[in-house]
Amino acid sequence: MSRRNCVNEWSGSIQSPNYPSSYDPNANCSWTIQIPLDKYLANVNITDFHLETNYDFLFRYDCSSSDSSLIASLTGQQSGRIFSSSSNSMHLVFSSDSDSNWQGFSLNFTSVYSPLLDEPTTPSCGNNSACNGGKYIATLSGSGAYVSSSGYPSYYDNNLSCTWLVYSESQVKTNNLHVVLAANGDYLMFFDGPSQDFMILKIYTRYYDSASTFYSTGNYMFVQIVTGDSRSDNGFYFYACTYVNSTSLTAYSGSNYFTSPN
Ligand SMILES: [Ca+2]
Q: pLDDT per residue over 210-254, tens digit each?
């Protein structure tokens, strides 16, 4: 069977054919999620996902057709995963082979406003930083990205609100976080998603220095430093890199198990 679907909604759900009964063999179905306005992301929660491992797949593309770049190939059991699009559209393709049909999948998606979907701006006040309404977007590849307050370890400015959006094709992981903030109401926050609308991962208000790491649940981590009108200190730095949970994600290898439906 072959089927194409367009979902032009603010929120909704998508199920594999026949769900929760088993899907058909040789299925080839696609969905385009299009959030009605720019600057919104589709945030997808996989509520149930059981596909035959390495034979049946849900392919995730970053834009509105399978001509776009393939982000991930999901197979096996993936329930509980969360991921986001990097724009207001996302394309999904479900493909099954000729036998062993499992239960399939059910996904919910919602819209999330992300003002940082504007084009990245040139950092206005130092390396990897953007302040007072600006933004810095780091897309992780290779060895990752160094993120710091402006001019670290030189003292940061007063009255800052600086933000960083870190994107990875898998999850975002922090390394070697070092924080030195003045005791003046200054704070550093990490959010588990593409904006401040998401759950707070960490808040730091003074000193912190550790080799311990933490992760985003999905593809984005949003970072914000806010400083008051007096006193200052060194600021912060960390190294952001891509984290792949190898027990639940089959990375796309560009090999021969996928045929485009188009
Ligand atoms: Ca199968």
A: 767 899 998 889 998 888 888 889 999 888 888 887 654 443 333
Ligand 1 centroid – CA 42 distance (Å):
28
ω before 153 within 30° of 0 (cis)? yes
Distance 87 CA to ligand 1 centre (A): 31
118 residue type, one letter? D
Which CATH code for domain 116-243?
2.60.120.290
Q: What is the sign, positive or negative, of the torsion defined by CA atoms of 138, 144, 149, 152?
A: negative
Domains in the chain: boundaries? 2-113, 116-243
> What's domain 2-113's architecture?
Sandwich (2.60)
18-37: pLDDT as tens digits: 999 999 999 999 999 988 88
Between the CA of 100 and the centroid of ligand 1 the distance, in Å, is 4
Distance from Cα 85 to the centre of ligand 1, integer Å: 27
Burial profile 142-165: b = 16 or more Cβ within 10 angstroms, e = fewer:
eebbebbbbebeebbbeebebbbb
Give me ligand 1 centre to Cα 18, in Å. Answer: 14
Q: Are 29 and 18 in contact (CB under 8 A)?
A: no
Residue 134 in this model has a pLDDT that exceeds 80: no
pTM of this prediction? 0.56
CA–CA dist 213, 7 (Å, integer): 37
